[in-house]
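Annex B, item 7. Sequence and structure tokens for protein A, then protein B.
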Amino acid sequence: MATGPFIWLQHVLPQHAISRLAGAAASSTKPWLKDLLIHRFIRAYDVNMAEATKPAGEYACFNDFFTRALKHGAREIADAAEYIICPADGAISQLGRIEEGRIVQAKGQSYTAAELLGGDEEMAARFEGGAFMTIYLSPSDYHRVHMPVAGTLQHTTYIPGDLFSVNQETAAGVPRLFARNERLACLFGTQSGHVASVMVGAMIVASIETVWSGLVKAHGKDIINTDYAAGSSHPAPVLAAGAEMGRFLLGSTVILLFEPGRIEWLPELGPTTKLRMGQPIARKL
């Protein structure tokens, strides 16, 4: 297990205070600050602004730029009748089967589906023997998250936690990383069974936003469950395959969970494979 200075610093630094400070800077509309942040970020990470709907100078703040929309047609959406659609730009961290309730994080590292889902053993049991994929979004990537399959939202769970970085080094060196970091688990009912899309926060992630409820309360202390099933007080959003479901303000990682016997990952995919939102990642069974 890696224990280098980068990981050590993350253990000792005030993660939430740093993230709140970064969030304040990223939401600032002061022209000198937001323009400085945007232009330096574009140069540092070689961001492809040709895909964006607006030029760099037209964003209200850094967060507005970071969650930028893409031009129509910038991403081709695969045939949703046959395939599971990639929900985000990024790279595969890990993918495979959920065995004995455990999800692989990195070589020699794993965590349980129940931990990831905020301790919900009943929900986790639905995915026993099923499939998972972890997608890491780098700073230069498009940071909106889309639906891998058409579905109706049934339940969300906000789980407070740490804010470790989620890159490969930290995934290899911090036990149960994705079950420790702050996250929002979203459960959908679909024609491919129940599907969970878990948005995981990270160091300097200001917050997570969804299309149905806006900004999610971040850096809290309590687990928050919200029921969207029939009979609840919240209308259940119905989202098409490829539709936007949420976005990261300065982050992070998406983890998909599928029930057993529902999908089969495409054989050409593996750890470190680069992905683009909309491409096929699995066949429906």
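Protein B:
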Amino acid sequence: MIPIAKASDNLLIPEQHAALIYVVLVAATIAGLYTYTRVVARVGGDSSRIRSDLFSFADVPVVGLIIAFFGLTAISAWFLNAPKAEPATLKLEQIIPGALQFAVFPIGIMVFLHARNVSITEAFGLSKVRLGKAATLALGLLLALLPSFFLITDIAARKLGEGAELQPLVELYRSGVRERDYKVILHTFVAAAVIAPLAEEFLFRGYLYATLKRAIGALPSAVFGAVLFAAIHNNAVSLPGLFILALALTVAYEWSGSLWVPVFMHAFFNSLSLIIAAATAHQQP
């Protein structure tokens, strides 16, 4: 996930048109909430669309390790004043390898599931929805979500002022846009719009949520996963919006029964975030 930027860059609503745009966003948010309410109602009538039954107590220790790792990472970043990498320390050749490091977790889990004769295709509903339909559903659900995300993020940005710093990858990407370094732009899009959605959705929605759902139920699992997902991105401005996004991704997975739908939603969202970051790149020297 790529949070858009620091607080001043997240002011998506110009001051001179703020009142009108807020009215439009509130109306669109209400429409989007209505859409998700109907989707959730349909999920409630059919809670067996995702195959959480394929996950067992053998998966609980693995999920515990995942929670411990990312939980400690989030706590360290938010509360222990862990040192942050300077933007200049991130280089072009580190972008994709850095993203692939996160993919180690899904690969290890796939090996673990395969060793227990659990079908990856069945476990994550990969054949339930055609890719074209999954992309269409994802786009529709994301469009319904975006007004609330923009509204919440803009309010958070105004409250926090300059309280959130750029991530090194975002800084490098914006620098690449300013300097027309197309290698940096391409590598960032591959990392953010391809590798990150596949790895993070497999881990958070596909494995962590489905396993926890068997133990503590759908709602607590969805909320806990959303909190963890938002927290690990270590961006105060984006935190409320990412929490809402994570819940929406879980709803999309439950509704469709296929992990492809949240993967496409995540990919579209990250692509839009990068487009916005590129559009504002020249605002910061």
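Comment on protein B: Residues 7-283 form one domain.
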